[in-house]
Design a protein that fits this description.
Layout lengths: L1 H11 L9 H5 L4 H5 L5 H5 L6 E6 L2 E6 L2 E4 L13 H10 L8 E4 L2 E4 L4 E4 L15 H7 L9 E4 L4 H4 L3 E2 L2 E2 L5 E5 H8 L9 H10 L7 E4 L4 E3 L2 E5 L8 E7 L2 E7 L22 H18 L2 E4 L7 E6 L4 E5 L7
Parallel strand pairs: 6-7, 7-10, 10-11, 15-16
Antiparallel strand pairs: 1-2, 2-5, 3-4, 5-6, 8-9, 12-13, 13-14, 14-15, 16-17, 17-18
Helix pairs in contact: 8-9
């Protein structure tokens, strides 16, 4: 299909420009030309295109889209909830970060295998746009992909910032897709036992956005194949059926860790610290250590949904946890 070919070209780009040039190339403008225009106040305040980043993984093309980002308040109210605010603030300060606020970002990921276009998570959708989120489809289009190009949507888990983009104006956003999610996750959120509990809001969101797609959904457990080269891995704790995915092509590997760790300092340097949004805090901590021990030992790249954009990096083992090393040019050569 022509649309798929455009998507692949946009993802690859030229050696010097890469995916960041895609919006300008698609609009027939060059960044160099745009940069010489005077910066008026109206231009500076106009909405910017969403950030996108693409790279090759063997024979696959990977596109990361920044669905949005937001300042999210006091870090100690989310991370290290079993620590003192001073302890959390000191670790942030030691890593050149403010102690009184943090930025959370959201990175759905599209993988073009050549025969399938697989989307992992859908961001906030229309419900997040008033706050500057919900930009997944906009970013996909900038790279040459239309919603109807997506053949598989994988939901790592069913929290709102991962399922919000499933529907648009009451209809499926990705009209030609089939869906994959964890069996344990789906069973938990669709169960009426959630009514009257803190999970009731999530239950209602899943009934509205996920359950209507159940007839097109494959429910998986540990070790299931999504397509050749993409395999599920159980990573329970953040949510009851939270899944991560091993992606392998041409001898290269990438682990999509979803919400296993949600802050590149607080969750990685101190994986034992409790996180407010981890539903089973002990299981989540055990999953973090198991997952990132594997990544450190095997020197594997990972893509974390809430890591600093473009959300890809490596970890090095330290005494108390792991040091995050952002991706550079490893996939460009």
């Amino acid at each position: 299909m022509a649309q798929f070919e455009l998507g692949r070209r946009a993802l690859l780009g030229s050696a010097g420009m890469g995916i960041l040039a895609a919006p300008a190339l698609l609009s027939g403008q060059a960044f160099a030309q745009a940069s010489v225009q005077p910066a008026t106040e109206s231009k500076m305040t106009a909405p910017m295109p969403p950030e996108i980043h693409g790279f090759k993984l063997g024979d696959y093309r990977v596109l990361v889209v920044k669905d949005g980002a937001r300042a999210s308040g006091k870090p100690n109210e989310i991370f290290g909830t079993n620590q003192t605010p001073e302890t959390v603030g000191a670790l942030l300060a030691a890593n050149f970060l403010p102690a009184d606020n943090f930025v959370n970002s959201f990175s759905p990921t599209l993988i073009d295998t050549g025969s399938d276009v697989v989307l992992f998570d859908t961001g906030f959708g229309a419900g997040g746009r008033a706050q500057g989120n919900g930009r997944l489809v906009e970013g996909m289009k900038a790279a040459g992909y239309q919603p109807e190009d997506v053949t598989i949507v994988v939901l790592t888990h069913l929290h709102g910032d991962h399922i919000g983009g499933l529907m648009e104006d009451g209809k499926p956003t990705f009209a030609n897709a089939r869906y994959v999610t964890g069996q344990a996750e789906y069973d938990f959120w669709t169960n009426s036992a959630r009514v009257g509990t803190p999970a009731e809001g999530g239950h209602k969101a899943v009934l509205a956005s996920v359950k209507p797609l159940a007839d097109k959904m494959t429910f998986v457990g540990d070790g299931a194949s999504v397509v050749s080269g993409i395999t599920s891995m159980a990573a329970f704790g953040h949510s009851p059926g939270h899944m991560i995915y091993n992606v392998e092509s041409g001898g290269r590997r990438l682990i999509l860790t979803a919400d296993t760790a949600n802050h590149f300092v607080l969750s990685l340097q101190r994986p034992d610290w409790e996180v407010r949004f981890d539903m089973d805090k002990a299981a989540a901590a055990a999953t973090r250590k198991k997952t990132f021990d594997m990544l450190a030992a095997d020197k594997l790249a990972f893509l974390g949904y809430h890591m600093p954009f473009p959300a890809v990096g490596y970890v090095e083992k330290q005494d108390t946890g792991y040091r995050f090393v952002p991706k550079a040019y490893q996939f460009d050569i």
